[in-house]
Amino acid sequence: MSEEIGSVLMDIEEELVMPDIPIKPNNGIPVAIGIILVLGSLLASLLAAGMIASYVMRDELLEMEGLAEADAASIEMLVDSGMALTFGILYTAMTLCLLVGGIMMMRRKPKGVHLSAFGGWLYVIGAIISPIWTYSVAADYGLQAAFGGQDLLNVMCGSFCIMLPIIAVMIPEGRAALYPPTIVLETHEEE
Questions:
Q1: Is residue 144 in a domain?
Q2: Which of 143, 146, 153, 172 is 20 to 30 Å from the Cα of 105, by its Cα?
Q3: CA-to-CA distance for 108 and 103, rounded, in angstroms?
């Protein structure tokens, strides 16, 4: 039995199959995300520089004129508790991961996604540990610590750094740019 549908003749047992439409890679997606990650790494470098400077220049900072007691106690707390060194190393690693991962994404290298997401995870880990550590040692230095909006903002910023490279993979055109299809050429020799 055949029925006519438009200009196509079909048997009852046949089905129309949608043809596969190839997805065109959009190189702008990973490049734009890579640029944002590189700019984010520059901001992250300020966090690393601040922690390392407070560790290295402790005596010079404490001898500055006009330094309030709370600021001096904060510097002592950062250095004596080990927070300055720990977070200096953590934020430096995060900065390098975001920078190198962003550059790799601009060059459309898939490893840039993993490296950038790892850098974002380092920031989230630091954003979670920092207020907890501060809260646990602040009383020893005569300071009061509380969890606030800045801590939440740091966690959200780290989450954004994790999701940004993943978005490039979630968008089909971006995935096609990062993971181009491999073409295999087969040759048949005549004997």
A1: yes
A2: 153
A3: 9
- Express each pLDDT in 144-188 by its tens digit: 777 788 889 989 999 999 999 999 999 988 888 888 777 777 777
54 Cβ contact list (under 8 Å, min separation 6): 61, 75, 78, 79, 84
- Answer for the pair 113, 169: CB distance below 8 angstroms, yes or no: yes
**C-alpha to C-alpha distance for 138 and 145, rounded to whole angstroms:** 6
pLDDT of residue 82: 85
Residue that wins the pLDDT comparison between 72 and 30: 30
In a domain, 18, yes or no: no
Domain count, the chain: 1
pTM: 0.78
Asked whether residue 1 is domain-assigned, the answer is no
Query: Among 75, 66, 59, which Cα is nearest to 142's?
Result: 75
Report the distance separating Cα 119 and Cα 135, nearest Å: 25
Query: How many residues can be counted in the chain?
Result: 191
Helices (H), the chain: 28-56, 58-62, 69-80, 83-106, 111-137, 149-170, 172-178
Are the beta carbons of 128 and 155 closer than 8 angstroms?
yes
Q: Domain range for residue 81? A: 25-170
The one-letter code for the residue type at 150 is Q
